[in-house]
């Protein structure tokens, strides 16, 4: 079984003016597709080729074997980046629901005081993130939402040696990519403008309302 590049949930032009067609073209067809191709090259012909992305990302035993075999955890890194990017695309929508409603809105208001306060916290964490990585809104095991960050290919689903890292794990609800390739064409080194202009804020995706 080979991993496939999932289709975008919208067209390459549909996130303009927040993200340009050029950005989405390179990000999706070069970076995201590149992770898929690299992952297939690493797992084809091995016991991992029939595993799901979630198995590779979350299974500690597979992760340790990957580290021992590749020294850099290349299988995990590429599998996580495939998963992360797929989730990121679905965290944005050209015509989503605006501010969240229902259960998600209630949870955000209870945790952060208001949706505006959540946006400020989300922006602060992402803009302040050092180097490459991801910002996430996750649902913790106790049912509360939390803004967390992960470095490089890090994923909130990850467990380290069976112990939940309470500061950056949970069920992902929303993701924002802060690797420079996600925004440099449109915003250069102005990460704050990218984060504050991302469609994550302008069109809260319907799937989590």
UniProtKB/TrEMBL annotation:
<keyword id="KW-0479">Metal-binding</keyword>
<dbReference type="InterPro" id="IPR001189">
    <property type="entry name" value="Mn/Fe_SOD"/>
</dbReference>
<comment type="function">
    <text>Destroys radicals which are normally produced within the cells and which are toxic to biological systems.</text>
</comment>
<dbReference type="InterPro" id="IPR019832">
    <property type="entry name" value="Mn/Fe_SOD_C"/>
</dbReference>
<feature type="domain" description="Manganese/iron superoxide dismutase N-terminal">
    <location>
        <begin position="2"/>
        <end position="93"/>
    </location>
</feature>
<feature type="domain" description="Manganese/iron superoxide dismutase C-terminal">
    <location>
        <begin position="101"/>
        <end position="196"/>
    </location>
</feature>
<feature type="binding site">
    <location>
        <position position="177"/>
    </location>
    <ligand>
        <name>Mn(2+)</name>
    </ligand>
</feature>
<dbReference type="Pfam" id="PF00081">
    <property type="entry name" value="Sod_Fe_N"/>
</dbReference>
<dbReference type="GO" id="GO:0046872">
    <property type="term" value="F:metal ion binding"/>
</dbReference>
<dbReference type="InterPro" id="IPR019833">
    <property type="entry name" value="Mn/Fe_SOD_BS"/>
</dbReference>
<feature type="binding site">
    <location>
        <position position="181"/>
    </location>
    <ligand>
        <name>Mn(2+)</name>
    </ligand>
</feature>
<keyword id="KW-0560">Oxidoreductase</keyword>
<dbReference type="InterPro" id="IPR036324">
    <property type="entry name" value="Mn/Fe_SOD_N_sf"/>
</dbReference>
<feature type="binding site">
    <location>
        <position position="85"/>
    </location>
    <ligand>
        <name>Mn(2+)</name>
    </ligand>
</feature>
<comment type="similarity">
    <text>Belongs to the iron/manganese superoxide dismutase family.</text>
</comment>
<comment type="subunit">
    <text>Homodimer.</text>
</comment>
<dbReference type="InterPro" id="IPR036314">
    <property type="entry name" value="SOD_C_sf"/>
</dbReference>
<keyword id="KW-0408">Iron</keyword>
<dbReference type="InterPro" id="IPR019831">
    <property type="entry name" value="Mn/Fe_SOD_N"/>
</dbReference>
<protein>
    <recommendedName>
        <fullName>Superoxide dismutase</fullName>
        <ecNumber>1.15.1.1</ecNumber>
    </recommendedName>
</protein>
<dbReference type="Pfam" id="PF02777">
    <property type="entry name" value="Sod_Fe_C"/>
</dbReference>
<dbReference type="GO" id="GO:0004784">
    <property type="term" value="F:superoxide dismutase activity"/>
</dbReference>
<feature type="binding site">
    <location>
        <position position="27"/>
    </location>
    <ligand>
        <name>Mn(2+)</name>
    </ligand>
</feature>
